[in-house]
Specification:
The complex is a heterotetramer, with two copies of chain A (about 270 residues) and two copies of chain B (about 325 residues). Chain A is of the alpha/beta class and about 270 residues long. Helix content of chain A is about 20%, strand content about 30%. Chain A has six helices and 15 strands. The chains are: A alpha/beta (about 270), B alpha/beta (about 325). Bound molecules: flavin-adenine dinucleotide (2 copies), flavin mononucleotide (2 copies) and FE2/S2 (inorganic) cluster (FES) (2 copies).
């Protein structure tokens, strides 16, 4: 069976800027808000650009939150990196977003039943973590957020997590917020504190961070799911462009992922 | 919807309800798009390139976006012809549009064996021989850059099936008409063009190719003017039908190809940009014909009036 | 401005203060741009293609915009070499940048006569032989699509001048390295590539070509990935310097060409989009080198590390 | 000598929509406002699009008015025809316009000294006519505007002319404003009313209209200047793309024009 995916024009309701070129878009998209699962994403572009948008391809973005009780809206937390995200940053209320989604498989939440679920996050990876944390918290599972950045300004999108009333450990390299150090230092402490069989890990963020997290978790036999970011042309499994290497075979990040099991994922090889 | 305009085209023994197909490698195995629209609205679609055995494709770093285009070096990842027949073809049964099997072999024998496997499948309407993929070492441009090999492989496949045989041409040659003529002589029912143009992008920080394959194939609106010209050139040079491909995003683009001489068109990269591009082009063609008082779209095919000596136009 | 970074490059007997030139046909005769910036900031520029006699060019309908690019069929309108020497060269005297005379003849003799006229002019630094213009009937691609004729014309010009001779190559061929090698063997000091790709656009209402010439040459960002790959390929194949051209709009684009093996680059169509593109690229190269800790831009030339077997990168 | 041309980012002050997809942009551009001559134009694009704007090339637009006494602003009257003008139509105050200008030769006003100057206008040609009318009126010359459209809604940009207190004849094909008929009918009446040697013509608008006007004026020996619209890549004489045919030779619309003498201009030839 094909999963439900819609293509729609979502009216922009709000564009709230954060420090460090991050902004949070709120758009009207009930079909997505009502069906999205933690870890899923959308393909997005500025609407109304005619037949040849610029840039041409949509950009993959995690669904950050579903902010209203009626589930008619979604938010996207986006960092300006290049032309695609820059154009998205110019959206204002009254404009619209072309969306395709929800896409991807998302996280497997069953793995962490009755374990301590640690969500290790860096950068815009935070956007993939909120629905996950919320779902785990709602299911009554124990869940903690470990969120690291270079400085306080990097810790965008914390507010909604605070409302979940889950333990949050923040780290900054320069000590301007939370503990001074790396998020993986905080993780190490947790790993020393609890027996491996009580833990379940999720990690979203820069590849280098996720690789370190994986290399800490996998040897201890701790289940660890990573959510990877990789260039995508279509987002729904037809261009075959978003391949990642896993033990055994190539897999598509957009349909098999973006969540992969850390023990199966093969990190990049480059001399 | 009012169907006063006749959008149908007929060529190479097949009738298409409209001249809009979707291009190999950009439409999956067709079924993936049924969640966006009823693919029976299309004249047809071309499958991802099918090989005798499943192919894993190239390592990651397969795509890179460029101005109004994209580079790809997928390396022809596909499920193989057997899995296609077993898993991909049956779900297409309910849809009323032509399925064109895009096929690729490392040798003439492989092409023939693939055709032999597909020939008993009634849901397949035609074969499109991919002799022009820039992203694999064997069996791609090796055939498509040598007119003799082109003739051989087309001739052999022609002898092996009574189904329409289309041949997909590479644009990366000095004179594409040489290859089109080789196909015509070998008995091809149509040539389809263009496949992608070889290109490259470089990560300027790491000083490495963006694609693991080094080079990739450029597609999308960027290449449209190049493709229109090649289609025009080929349509002038051969009398078999031409199917036009390259950067089509809307009806206006499709019209360029039809007027240049294409009997049908294929939408490629635009399927990623907007999965509804196919039906949008169909509707746009209908609107254009209606507005311009053209009763049947086929009247447009090859209707380009060259500029005569002394003529000119201000734009 | 802090000049800690060494942007200079040296090749073919000339030293350029930076590797950024502007391309023939997109920079007029240079002087037109002095109202926007001091053209001494450039490494150099190439003049509009100069012929022995003035040329009127093609009839109107000479340009058409395409996605991230444009088609042109100017037809080499130019004032002719005599008027160039008389009217265009003197005002360039005060500017400290290399003037590369882009020249074009209908025959080898014409090339030589043009060179003979320009040789006494000290303000001209080098010749760029245009054997690749797609928009004229004679003297353009006629030389550039036949390796033997390419050799002949380059060899003859080589014999006629002691100035650096660059040869501008056509990308509209199956294997560009054949032509680059012919230039190398004939003693060219550098090859410059690419000239435009042949393309076409159609007025879908009038069903006529948009350009009076029928076809035109595609330039602009759309062609960049194709040009980068050709530059890489040629830089691998010959040991004479390569000058990279095609769709450069910013320093990042220029870096792709340098890393691919170009000793310098030329900015073309982008001069229309923003007349300050040249100096912007120069500054951007400086910034890049500074940020990346690269003391001299020439270290980047040809520094591409190919992907080794088994390597791959996630983007 | 090279004429003064500047390249600047002009802040958008106002975007006022008119019927029939016409809008009037007001931008801050003192360097242009202070030096522009009647009939000159600018090349314009939406600013802030990064290195590769979409569409790639700027669009040629007449300087419509210089609305403030201090000459710090210019207005552009634009009709949405394709992607370039559509993108310009999305500009809002706070955005900016990339401009190169003023460009072109403009009208030769000496021709009409002590004659009755008729300005025959259709469509967005009106944008090239205002500064001309103003300058002629200020110089105390007799000047009349003949402005035609299909219906009342087509007569955009009339207001500033009304303030010049010059005679204005409007025509509409459907009679919804002014006289019913074509602007060339109104012109014919004028030509019958006055001796040819008392008249001087300017015309800006669709090619077909200008061609009819020319064919009326030239045989009578009435000086007639036309302002042509043709695709331009650069606007300042370096691409050689904007050639038009005149008796004797090709000429560049951007540097020799956009104003040409009707008696020299060769209209398009097409079978
Ligand atoms: C499943 C998934 C979910 C995601 N979720 C989010 C999210 O929630 N929030 C978010 O902000 N992001 C998210 N991303 C990442 C997001 O998709 C990218 O940041 C975005 O596509 C970047 O697009 P861009 O056009 O802005 O940048 P691009 O132009 O694509 O460039 C990206 C980076 O590459 C560099 N680059 C480009 N060309 C070159 C070159 N030739 N050489 C060297 N470097 C180059 C640029 O400088 C830039 O740093 C997600 C990605 C995936 C796959
Ligand atoms: C000196 C000068 C002054 C000008 N002043 C003004 C002014 O003051 N106000 C004003 O509004 N305009 C003015 N113009 C005209 C203006 O420049 C054009 O309207 C503008 O460039 C159109 O750009 P666009 O991108 O919107 O349309 P484009 O995309 O360039 O298209 C223009 C038209 O061509 C059609 N077209 C495009 N491609 C094709 C095809 N393949 N087949 C058939 N048709 C096609 C489109 O449908 C559209 O109708 C002036 C032009 C010049 C030269
Ligand atoms: C991601 C991708 C994969 C492709 N795979 C194939 C393929 O398997 N077989 C083939 O013949 N062409 C393949 N093509 C080429 C397209 O079918 C088409 O010829 C080309 O993209 C030009 O059309 P476009 O500009 O509309 O995309 C592929 C193109 C893309 C972008
Ligand atoms: C309008 C125009 C005119 C050109 N005229 C010439 C010419 O006279 N001689 C020449 O060698 N190349 C000519 N070219 C080609 C350019 O020099 C350059 O090779 C090509 O445009 C690719 O670079 P770009 O993509 O940066 O424009 C011309 C290009 C354009 C767009
Ligand atoms: S992005 Fe196209 S297959 Fe995954
Ligand atoms: S527009 Fe470039 S020369 Fe006139």
């Amino acid at each position: 069976m094909l999963s439900l995916v819609v293509r729609l024009q979502a009216p922009v309701l709000e564009n709230r800027p954060s420090p460090r070129h991050v902004f949070v878009l709120t758009v009207q998209a009930p079909q997505i808000a009502q069906s999205v699962r933690p870890g899923q994403f959308v393909m997005a572009a500025v609407a109304g650009q005619g037949d040849i948008p610029s840039p041409l391809l949509k950009r993959a973005l995690a669904v950050f939150t579903v902010p209203d009780r009626e589930a008619t809206r979604i938010t996207l937390l986006i960092k300006i990196l290049g032309e695609g995200t820059r154009r998205l940053s110019t959206l204002r209320p009254g404009d619209a977003l072309d969306l395709v989604g929800p896409l991807g498989e998302g996280f497997d939440l069953d793995r962490g039943r009755s374990r301590i679920n640690l969500i290790v996050v860096g950068g815009t990876g935070v956007a993939s973590a909120y629905l996950l944390a919320r779902e785990l918290a709602r299911a009554g599972e124990e869940v903690r957020l470990l969120y690291g950045g270079r400085s306080a300004d990097d810790l965008a999108g914390l507010a909604p997590f605070e409302q979940l009333e889950i333990p949050i450990i923040t780290t900054t390299e320069d000590g301007t917020a939370g503990r001074a150090g790396l998020v993986t230092d905080a993780l190490r402490e947790c790993l020393e504190q609890y027996p491996a069989r009580h833990l379940n890990l999720y990690t979203c963020g820069p590849n280098r961070m996720m690789q370190v997290v994986s290399e800490m978790a996998v040897p201890l036999g701790i289940p660890c799911q990573i959510s990877v970011e990789i260039k995508m042309a279509c987002g729904f499994g037809v261009c075959l462009g978003c391949t990642v290497k896993t033990t055994g075979s190539y897999r598509l990040a957009c349909t098999h992922g973006p969540v992969f099991d850390a023990s199966e994922f093969i990190w990049e090889q480059s001399g | 919807m009012d169907h006063d305009i006749d959008l149908s085209v007929e060529f190479g023994g097949l009738r298409f309800k409209n001249p809009v197909l979707t291009a190999s490698g950009t439409f999956g195995y067709g079924i993936e798009f049924t969640r966006f629209f009823d693919i029976s609205e299309l004249g047809g679609f071309c499958t991802k390139g099918l090989s005798l055995e499943p192919m894993a494709g190239n390592a990651p770093g397969r795509i890179f976006e460029t101005p109004a285009g994209m580079l790809n070096a997928i390396g022809l990842e596909n499920v193989g012809v057997d899995a296609f027949i077993r898993d991909k073809l049956p779900p297409l049964e309910p849809y009323d549009c032509h399925v064109v099997a895009n096929i690729l072999g490392k040798s003439t024998e492989e092409f023939i064996r693939i055709v032999e496997k597909l020939d008993p499948q009634p849901k397949v309407s035609a074969y499109e021989l991919n002799i022009s993929c820039p992203n694999i070492k064997q069996g791609g441009m090796q055939f498509g850059h040598d007119p003799k090999l082109t003739f051989q492989v087309v001739d052999a496949v022609r002898g092996a099936t009574s189904r329409p045989v289309w041949v997909k041409l590479s644009p990366n040659v000095t004179d594409i008409t040489v290859f089109a003529r080789a196909c015509e002589e070998a008995g091809a029912d149509a040539v389809t063009l263009v496949n992608t143009f070889v290109g490259m992008a470089i990560d300027v920080y790491r000083r490495r190719p963006m694609l693991s394959n080094g080079t990739g194939g450029l597609s999308g609106p960027a290449i449209r003017p190049l493709a229109v010209r090649l289609v025009y050139q080929v349509a002038q040079a051969v009398s078999i039908p031409v199917v036009g491909i390259g950067g089509i995003s809307c009806a206006r683009d499709a019209l360029e190809f039809l007027i240049a001489g294409a009997s049908a068109v294929q939408v490629g990269t635009a399927n990623f940009v907007d999965p509804l591009t196919g039906p949008k082009v169909v509707e746009g063609l209908r609107d254009h014909c209606r507005e311009q008082g053209i009763p049947a779209v086929r009247e447009l095919i090859g209707s380009l009036k060259p500029i005569a000596e002394g003529e000119f136009v201000y734009y």
